[in-house]
Amino acid sequence: MPESDPRFYERATRRISWLIAALGLLGTIVAISMRGFRAGIAFLLGAAVSYFSFVSWQRFTGALGPDGKRRFAWPFVVRIAVLLAAAWVIIKFLGPNVAAGATGLFVGTGAVILEIIYELIYS
To answer: What are the boundaries of each domain within the chain?
Structure first.
C-alpha cells in the first residue's frame, strides 16, 4: 500500500461490502440447494446481520478520527435491537436452521479474508 494513496481505505471497504453481498448471495443459493428454503433464508438473514455489523463498525471507526461527527447513542441502541430481533427470528422461526444462520454471520469475516488475499496479490 503506497502511503500517499488517500483513497486506499475507501476502495478496500467498498470491495469488502461487495464481497459480503456476493458471498451472501452465493451462500444463500448453496444453502437452498443443499438444505432447503428455510436454511437459505437463515443464511441470508445471518449474512444481512453480518453486512449491517460491518457498516456499523465502519461508521464507528469513522467517527473516531479528527473529522468524526459526534453521534447520539440512540441509533446505536436501535441497531443493537435490530440485530437481536434478527437473531430471535432466526432462532424462533427457522428452528433447526440456526447453524445456517450462524454460518451466514461469518460472511463478513470471509469477505475481509478475501480482501486481504486480494491486497497481498495485487499490492
So the answer is: 8-122
As given in the structure block, the three cell numbers for residue 24 are 451472501
| Inter-CA distances, 47 with 4, 22, 74, 88, Å | 34, 10, 24, 15
pTM: 0.78
CA distance 21 to 16: 9
From the CA atom positions of the chain, what is the Rg in Å? 17
Residue 98 — pLDDT band, cuts 50, 70, 90? confident
CA distances from 97 to 7, 64, 103, 118 (A): 40, 37, 10, 32
Q: What string of H, E and C letters represents the secondary structure of 13-65? A: HHHHHHHHHHHHHHHHHHHHHHHCHHHHHHHHHHHHHHHHHHHHHHHHHHHHC
Q: Tell me the C-alpha distance between 122 and 43, whole Å.
A: 31
Q: At what angle do helices 37-64 and 8-35 cross, to 10 degrees?
A: 160
